[in-house]
Amino acid sequence: MIKVDNLTKKFGGFTAVNQASLAIRKGSITGLIGPNGAGKTTLFNVIAGVHKPSSGTVLLDGEDITGLPPHELFHKGMLRTFQIAHEFSTLTVRENLMMVPPAQAGETLMDVWFHGKKVQEQERKVKEKAEEVIDFLEISHVADELAGNLSGGQKKLLELGRTMMVDAKVVFLDEVGAGVNRTLLNTIGDAIIRLNQERGYTFCVIEHDMDFIDKLCDPVIVMAEGAVLAEGTLAEIKANEHVIEAYLGTGLKNKVAK
């Protein structure tokens, strides 16, 4: 589905992503791991159109999408979340979800004035979709809560729900577990698996929690110093000497050996 070929991103004299090549298979939950500063988030940002690459290409279903801005990629079904959730804090959870679908009739004064029935019908459908998402994620108890009052984990669930409002093809999740308690993290993980298995979502996940990666991801891609170092199952990654030395460290090597 996603093919990245020799992607490089430089900021002045610093190379954040260095000729990275990888593929994200349709229907997979691909993990992307590596130490802080490995280039993972920058790679996400280049693929998702936040930054233009210095060189290299990105393909989506065979189409060259290199350097396209996020709003164009949104319409092609590519979405991403961030380490820090970007909710509308003064709107409720339900209203946050209803904001997502593009080109809603109620956004124009002409439609509001002259096509009221059209506006009402579309709003009804969007609200039904939001209720479906709320039920799927089992967050009905906070549906009418202001998003700014949610916990970190609930905000991550809301971000996941927002991707469901447009039936995304591929979703990039950046540290979905950051600041999330274990119970909510398991809930988020279960929702990702259900979206993958029941609705065919493709995911690429940056995460430092290896238990979370183990639960969700196959394959796992390792980055170090801006480049792709290895790819395989998490078991294969843990047994890879180059990965152990360059990223995971001797502490985990000794732990794995026990």
TrEMBL record:
It is an enzyme of class 3 (hydrolase). InterPro entries: AAA+_ATPase, ABC_AA/LPS_Transport, ABC_transporter-like_ATP-bd, ABC_transporter-like_CS, BCA_ABC_TP_C, P-loop_NTPase. Residues 2-250 form the ABC transporter domain. It comes from Granulosicoccus antarcticus IMCC3135. Keywords: ATP-binding, Hydrolase, Nucleotide-binding, Transport. The keyword Hydrolase applies. GO terms for cellular component: plasma membrane. This is Lipopolysaccharide export system ATP-binding protein LptB. SMART domains: AAA. It comes from the Bacteria. Its EC number is 3.6.3.-. GO terms for molecular function: ATP binding; ATP hydrolysis activity. The keyword Transport applies.
